[in-house]
Write a structure and sequence with these properties.
The complex is a heterodimer of chains A (253) and B (437).
Chain A (H helix, E strand, L loop, with lengths): L9 E10 L2 E11 L4 E5 L6 H9 L6 E6 L2 E3 L4 H6 L2 E4 L11 H5 L14 H15 L15 H14 L4 E5 L7 H16 L3 E5 L3 H7 L2 E6 L2 E7 L5 H10 L8
Parallel strand pairs in A: 3-8, 3-9, 6-7, 7-8
Antiparallel strand pairs in A: 1-2, 1-4, 4-5, 9-10
Chain B lengths: L12 H5 L4 H9 L3 H25 L7 H26 L7 H24 L6 H25 L5 H19 L10 H5 L9 H29 L7 H23 L5 H6 L14 H19 L1 H11 L1 H6 L4 H27 L10 H11 L11 H20 L4 H26 L1
Helix pairs in contact in B: 3-17, 4-12, 4-15, 4-16, 4-17, 5-6, 5-7, 5-15, 6-7, 6-15, 9-10, 12-13, 16-17, 17-18
Classes of the chains: A alpha/beta (253), B mainly alpha (437).
Pfam family, one (chain A): ABC_tran
Keywords (chain A): ATP-binding, Cell membrane, Membrane, Nucleotide-binding, Repeat, Sugar transport, Translocase, Transport
GO molecular function (chain A): ATP binding; ATP hydrolysis activity
Chain lengths: 253, 437
């Protein structure tokens, strides 16, 4: 998977952001091509989530530029990010626990009737359709998502990202709270979305998941980029060395 | 959001759940909120208790009479209208302590406007005075609410502090506005909005309102069923639909009969130049109709619009709401502005009922309004609450108040009882929620 010629789907150049004098992200550049899965690795506090939140509109970068399909993009809030077909599955899932699955799936993008009222029935029907595809065992359409299991909540969050035809998908530790079967389900979904030509940023701690799912891996440490590697060219020990000691293997760039 | 728990799609909820207990089966099939039933039971208990106490101890059961219940409906209106707005404020994890004082200051503004200012310009008794006065009052409330909302959302001051400040500032303003003097009487058309003499719609009007409401209930049931059929969702069994329709219409027509059973007193008959032994019904009071209209509008706002959906989302998880692209600050400002507008409407009713504007109007109302919302099931933790619950909560609060007056408890005892009931109600609600979880 080194055939990354052509215009990247996403290019983040020289991004910096600091909180109260601490540089959370320090001049980091990464890119992502269609049909590619790029893993973002590093210790807790390395700046992975912060970097990616600049792309999803949750944070505003202090410096640097973002290009989508080669054109400069201004992303200053989550609504802007959605406008560029960037969808995010947050580690916390970002669900309103008191609302049901359909209300969460369409939150901020409700379907409305001709009179301008929210069309709950239509939204539930759409939710049933997409859930039948993603998680056929899902039945709890009419209860608040607080009553769902970790895996069910995760499938609501994933459905939200997939339903709106994302081109760029950000997944922040999507399998952290899941059992083996559900983790497998997410892995299959990632492969499927990849085949459809989406670009996926995957923040992940599990080195085996990275080796299995990612084409390239970007390692961060203390807010800086240690290096980027083609996953096929290195061993998991190489990547662990980058994460733990910040040691850049020969094949990294 | 419109449908309630159910199991596998093809089976009907009744057969899918199939609890053996007939009461449970009835509740599952009709999808009635059990919490609502609990509140209604509590209300009936309070009413029956006061009536019995009066009958046994004082030899005069005065509570369950058309006259008292009619008065109760009027007294509830202003608190209930504010409570519907307080639901939104509390759902989004805020509080508004200033509503009582906003009533005071908008009441004074409207008093000055309709007694001192507008008659000078338009002439005394001009037909448009009451309209301009109401508009000004509601606008004033909205602007004060918006100011509070702005300080909370865009300046990051906690709502408790902003509205605690507002509680003092606006009460002071109400005093300064007319040097502490009471303004009375108000415009005669304006006074009707308080439900005083003539401020009711009579027997025929009440029947029309009641029949329209019944038609509304039936339309809602039919439309709801049509939606479920269209999307192939589980339907309620037909007998449950019919039972719901019958209960709804019976409750509406029963209240019409009740309101019509209270005749105008002799003094008013004399003023209207009617024979003194004529039976002329009060019918619904105008403030009650305003309360019902507000209740319906707020229910639609909360359950059928994006605005309402966002209110719940912010209450459930403010961070998730912001990440979903909801402008949570602007929402907060709008919610407080709406609370202010509703307070303006409540001020119209309160000062019209008093037929005057005083600087003490609405004192302690904020506590009754918050209590009504909380008794009605609004969770102070945020994210949960209903409009009908708040209105019922206001009715419970007012029933306690006027019931104790009726049986001759003095003000000190009244406060003790109301305070204890508030704490007990929230405790029972906690137990209920823990059990149904």
């Amino acid at each position: 998977m080194t055939t990354n010629t052509g215009t990247p789907l996403v290019e983040m150049r020289d991004i910096s952001i600091s909180f109260g004098g601490i540089k959370a992200v320090d001049h980091v550049s990464i890119d992502l091509h269609p049909g590619e899965v790029v893993g973002l690795l590093g210790h807790n506090g390395a700046g992975k989530s912060t970097l990616i939140k600049c792309l999803s509109g949750a944070y505003q970068k202090d410096a640097g530029e973002i290009y989508i399909n080669g054109e400069k993009a201004e992303i200053s809030n989550p609504r802007d990010a959605r406008h560029y077909n960037i969808e995010t599955i947050y580690q916390t899932l970002a669900l309103a626990d008191n609302l049901d699955a359909a209300s969460n799936l369409f939150l901020g993008r409700e379907l409305v009737t001709a009179a301008g009222f929210v069309d709950d029935a239509q939204m539930e029907a759409e939710t049933r359709k997409i859930m039948a595809r993603l998680n056929p065992n899902f039945r709890k359409f009419n209860v608040p998502v607080s009553a769902l299991s970790g895996g069910q909540r995760q499938s609501v969050a994933i459905a939200r990202a997939v339903y709106f035809n994302a081109k760029i998908l950000i997944m922040d530790e999507p399998t952290a709270a899941l059992g083996p079967q559900e983790t497998q389900m997410v892995a299959e979904l990632i492969q499927e979305l990849k085949r459809q030509g989406l670009g996926i940023f995957l923040i992940e701690h599990d080195i085996h998941a990275v080796m299995d799912l990612c084409d390239r891996a970007v390692v961060m440490k203390n807010g800086q980029r240690v290096g980027t590697v083609n996953v096929g060219d290195v061993t998991d020990d190489d990547i662990l060395g980058m994460i733990i000691m910040g040691k850049k293997p020969a094949k990294a760039y | 959001m419109t449908q309630t728990p159910l199991s596998s799609p093809p089976a009907s909820p009744a057969t899918a759940a199939a609890p053996a207990n007939p009461v449970k089966r009835f509740l599952a099939a009709t999808e009635i909120d059990t919490r609502l039933l609990g509140m209604l039971a509590a209300l009936l208990l309070i009413w029956g208790g006061f009536h019995l106490y009066g009958a046994v101890v004082n030899g005069n059961g005065a509570f369950l009479t058309p006259r008292n219940l009619w008065n109760l409906s009027v007294q509830t209106s202003s608190i209930a209208i504010m409570a519907t707005g307080m639901v939104l404020v509390i759902i989004t994890r805020n509080i508004d302590l200033s509503v009582g004082s906003i009533i005071g200051v908008t009441g004074m503004l409207m008093g000055i406007l309709q007694v001192d200012v507008l008659p000078q310009i338009l002439g005394l008794g001009h037909w448009s005075i009451w309209i301009l006065t109401c508009a000004a009052g509601i606008l004033c409330g909205t602007l004060i609410g918006a100011l509070h909302g702005w300080l909370i959302a865009y300046r990051g001051i906690p709502s408790f502090i902003v509205t605690l400040g507002g509680l003092m500032v606006w009460r002071g303003m109400a005093f300064i506005a007319n040097g502490g003097k009471t303004i009375s009487p108000v415009d005669s058309t304006f006074a009707l909005l308080g439900g005083g003499p003539g401020g009711n719609i009579g027997a025929t009007g009440s029947w029309i309102v009641g029949l329209l409401a019944c038609a509304g209930v039936i339309w809602m049931l039919i439309n709801g069923r049509k939606q479920r059929v269209k999307h192939d969702f589980p339907k309620r069994p037909m007998w449950a639909e019919l039972t719901l329709g019958a209960i709804g219409c019976a409750a509406i027509l029963g209240s019409v009969l009740l309101m019509n059973a209270y005749p105008l007193p002799v003094g008013i008959l004399r003023r209207l130049e009617l024979p003194e032994d004529a039976f002329v019904s009060h019918g619904f009071a105008i403030p009650v109709l305003i309360m019902i209209a507000v209740g319906i509008a707020m229910t639609i706002l909360m359950t059928r619009t994006r605005f309402g959906r966002y209110v719940f989302a912010i209450g459930g998880n403010p961070e998730a709401a912001a990440l979903a692209g909801i402008n949570t600050r602007w929402m907060t400002l709008k919610i407080f502005a709406l609370m202010g507008a509703l307070t303006g409407i409540a001020a119209v009713i309160a000062s019209a009922r008093l037929n005057s504007a005083t600087n003490a109007l609405g004192t302690l109302d904020e506590l009754y309004v918050i209590a009504a919302a909380v008794i009605g099931g609004t969770s102070l933790a945020g994210g949960v609450g209903t409009i009908y619950g708040a209105i019922l909560g206001a009715l419970v609060m007012q029933s306690l108040q006027s019931g104790m007056v009726l049986i001759g408890f003095d003000a000190a005892i009244q406060r003790i009882v109301v305070g204890m009931v508030l704490v007990l109600a929230v405790y029972l609600d906690n137990l209920y929620r823990a059990r149904t979880k």
